[in-house]
Each structure stands twice: as structure tokens, then as C-alpha cells.
Amino acid sequence: MKIIILAGGKGTRLPRSAKNIPKSLVKIAGKPILQHQIDILEKHNLTDIRFSLGYEANQIIDYLKNKHEYIIESEPLGTGGAIKFASKDLKEDFMILNGDILTDINFSEFLKFHKNVPQANSLTV
After folding, report:
1. CATH superfamily of 2-115
2. Do the Cβ atoms of 50 and 5 come closer than 8 Å?
3. Quick check: 4 and 94 in contact, CB under 8 A?
4. pTM of the entire predicted model
5. pLDDT digits 0-9 by tens, 78-123
6. How many Å is the Cα radius of gyration of the chain?
7. Which of 25, 31, 85, 111 is deepest in the core (most CB within 10 A)?
8. What is the DSSP secondary-structure string of the chain?
9. Which whole-number Å values give the CA distances from 113 to 26, 103, 116, 121, 122, in the listed order?
10. Are 55 and 8 in contact (CB under 8 A)?
11. How many other β-carbons are positioned within 10 Å of the β-carbon of residue 1?
12. Which residues pair with 50 in a beta bridge?
């Protein structure tokens, strides 16, 4: 399954110490939020990750070191626009994560639930 991480946010409400870096690169417990996300996804064998980038995209690209796919919005599209842009070529199911959240969701169970219920979308908060 393809995972799309929306990581184009500016972080306008973050403290000065986090200015000029994308929200997903803010460090929590010594590592960037996006690395926490990658780690939890990999724990559930979810490794096909595409990052949707915008603000200071090059910083994230440098961090990822070409280990993951990414696309860059030429202008801010908002959440819905970013999802549409990032998924336009996908034919299979995909999962969306905001690039500025930390979670310990059991993605394996969540995906099992999604596959066993007769609806097009599943959401967790």
C-alpha cells in the first residue's frame, strides 16, 4: 500500500526555534517527526512512502537522502489539493498521514479493519 505523508506545511504557529524549517523536521525526542512516522510505518511493513512537499522542500529531500519518493507542490494547494495532487497517478488504495503528527496507531490492525468493511474510506483520529 502506498503511504502519502503531507509534509508541505510552514509551521507558522511554531516557536522561533523552529522557524525556517518544515514542521515535519521539528525534532521530538531527538529525531524529526517524519522519522518517527517512517519508523512506525516500517514497524508495520509499510515502506512505500511518498512525501507531498511544499515549504522548504529541499530540507526534507536532503534529510530523506532519496530513500523515499516525493512530489513538490509549486504553490500551496491546501490539504485537499495536496491529497489530489499526490495521489493523481495512484490506482491502488493509499493511506494519508499529516506530516506533523505523532501516533502509535497499530497500522496493521487499521488496514485489516479497512479491508474488512464495505466502504471506500476509513478514518482514524
Report:
1. Spore Coat Polysaccharide Biosynthesis Protein SpsA; Chain A (3.90.550.10)
2. yes
3. yes
4. 0.88
5. 889 999 999 999 998 899 999 988 988 899 999 999 888 887 788 8
6. 14
7. 25
8. -EEEEEE----TTS-GGGTTS-GGG-EETTEEHHHHHHHHHHHTT--EEEEEE-TTHHHHHHHHTTSSEEEE-SS--HHHHHHHHHHTT--S-EEEEETT------HHHHHHHHHTSSSS-----
9. 31, 18, 5, 11, 8
10. yes
11. 15
12. 4, 69
- What's the one-letter identity of residue 7? A
Cβ of 41: how many Cβ atoms within 10 Å? 20
| C-alpha grid cell, residue 125 | 483520529
Amino acid, single-letter form, for residue 21? I
CB 39 within 8 A of CB 53: no
- The domains of the chain are located at 2-115
Handedness of CA 56, 103, 96, 49 (dihedral sign): positive
pLDDT digit string, tens, across residues 31-74: 999 999 999 999 999 999 999 999 889 999 999 998 899 999 98
